[in-house]
Amino acid sequence: MDLNAMEENYRQKNRTCFILGASGETGKALLKEIVERNIFSSITLIGRRQLTFEDKAYENLVQKVVDFEKLDEYAEAFQGHDVGYCCLGTTKAKAGAEGFVRVDHDYVLKSAELAKAGGCSHFHLESSKGADKTSSFLYLKTKGQVEAEIEDLGFERFSIYRPAVLLVDREESRPAEWVARKFLCAVSSVLPSMSIPITAVARAMVVNTLTDGEQKVEILENKAIYNLGKIGDKE
Known about the structure:
Elements: H1 3-11, E1 16-20, H2 25-37, E2 42-47, E3 62-65, E4 83-86, H3 92-117, E5 122-126, H4 138-151, E6 157-162, E7 165-167, H5 175-190, E8 195-197, H6 198-210, E9 217-221, H7 222-230
Parallel strand pairs: 1-2, 1-4, 2-3, 4-5, 5-6, 6-9, 7-8
Helix pairs in contact: 2-6, 3-4, 6-7
Domain NAD(P)-binding: 21-170
Organism: Carassius auratus (Goldfish)
Pfam family, one: NAD_binding_10
């Protein structure tokens, strides 16, 4: 797979995109991939606050600040984008059960609805391994429900990513975390069903964008994400 040729071919299409959740770990990694590869004519970040960047490569980004509790009032932010990436998400520990559902279901679904109405043809959703609308676990049930409800919106192409444990290469001073992360990174290369580097998820989302989808709705489980995420790596 010639990634450079794919990028150049996609660039000629003059497409635009938006990213939801660019302040989160996956969103940051995804934005970096997209900016470095320069595959879109315009990149819009949609979020609750303005983000600041020191690197001049980010100076042409468009930022739309919205109130997720009143998204209908910000429909304009979702108009005119060919591709949408949704990396929105929180945890029950951070937001409580009600807050988790509001973010991971309500905000995500409403954003998808506005994106579809605004002309978005390819919608990417970061979900989770084990997502299942019939699950007895709130987290997995919520993820599965929003997948199904976005599918019903009828995007021309809907890509769902179900990564396992996300490995974030943070700088921290806790030796135990450093050792654990290095161990999991080593394990992920041997047993990619257990965990995955967050940079691989971002790369997979970009590489998948460059390919012609064979199905209207595609679900990429952790191993498929891992394999796509390796494309373009330097040997």
